[in-house]
Amino acid sequence: MIIAIDGPAASGKGTLAKRLAAHYGLPHLDTGLLYRAVARHVLDARARLDDAEAAERAAEALTAGDLNDAHLRDEGMGDAASIVSAHPGVRERLLAFQRDFAAQLPGAVLDGRDIGTVVCPLAEVKLFITATAEERARRRHLELVGRGVAADFTAILEDIRRRDERDRSRATAPLKPAADALTLDTTNLDADAAFRAALALVDERRKI
Length: 208
Ligand code: DC
Description:
Blueprint lengths: L1 E5 L6 H12 L3 E3 L1 H13 L7 H10 L13 H10 L3 H15 L5 E5 L2 H5 L5 E6 L2 H14 L6 H17 L12 E4 L5 H16 L2
Parallel strand pairs: 1-3, 1-4, 2-3, 4-5
The structure holds 2'-deoxycytidine-5'-monophosphate.
The site of 2'-deoxycytidine-5'-monophosphate has 15 residues, from helix 2, helix 4 and helix 8.
């Protein structure tokens, strides 16, 4: 079973993907890490994030080991990843790795922006996780403060809105629900309620 989970930044899709993977005993790939690692390579090479050729070279040189860098999840890397992810040549170079991961038996859980639409269009279960930008910013702010990181709510909300806009409006593989995706709005759900709702949606889809 392939479970494809898409949604905007800080929608909680990563946490849900991890919990669903553990529940069903499936491997999980956070595909945002691929784009974050490409951005890291570009910055390390002192190139510009909007330089398509530099980003394509970085995508080509990427190894699975690059995904283990704990700093990839740092705040600034999300926006950097969003910029390199808009280059079609970068997306194309990351496709085979994601599809190979999805093809393992007995299945896999992948989360990102285009899993249900482009990477795994035949996935058995597709979920699109949403929440209002304000709620997503509130959660991200709480999480950072909880980790002792200085965080400004307004700056986080602006980052989320900018990233949503860029990810939704790019020409190649924009963020959008697949036609056969089930949407889960987590605005008024805590993490456990969101997980229960996601489980119910997966089970509903598997019965078809
Ligand atoms: O999920 P994330 O916040 O780690 O993703 C970082 C950026 O990477 C996101 O803003 C857009 C890009 N991305 C993408 O274009 N396609 C994916 N499947 C995953 C992430």
